[in-house]
Amino acid sequence: MSARDEFLAGERPDDVALFLADSFVSGDKLADYGESVPGGVLLVVPGETGRNVFKKATGMDAMSFAKEAMGTEGTVAADLAGADCPEGDHDVEFVFAFAEEQNEEVGGLYAEGDVIHAYAYCSCGTSFSHKWVAGER
Known about the structure:
Oligomer: single chain
Helix content: 25-40%
Number of domains: 1
Pfam family, one: DUF5807
Radius of gyration: 14 Å
InterPro entries: DUF5807
């Protein structure tokens, strides 16, 4: 099972996943460390490392970006290698995702299982979020 498959199954709650479009990794060593996917590279790395890589690649603080993106719902691909912008047919530039372990006390999705939180940024400047129960997409 690949690191991405483990992450999407909720088995790597201490890691983060990053999809970076080719425009972010062109000529960058990051492409050597991740999984090549259509349109970019996908990395699954330990949390702190991932947040640092995210900041280096995008110039943004990962958690501040996630907080901003929570205000708009969109659709992130189940494999994390892209997204559909809620504002139109634009190219996604990056996705930042993490898994949160099941928490029945919180209820909702969290009672159903581990939850994948994914945040995307589009070429039009729109930030958006999507969350789902791990393994259900």
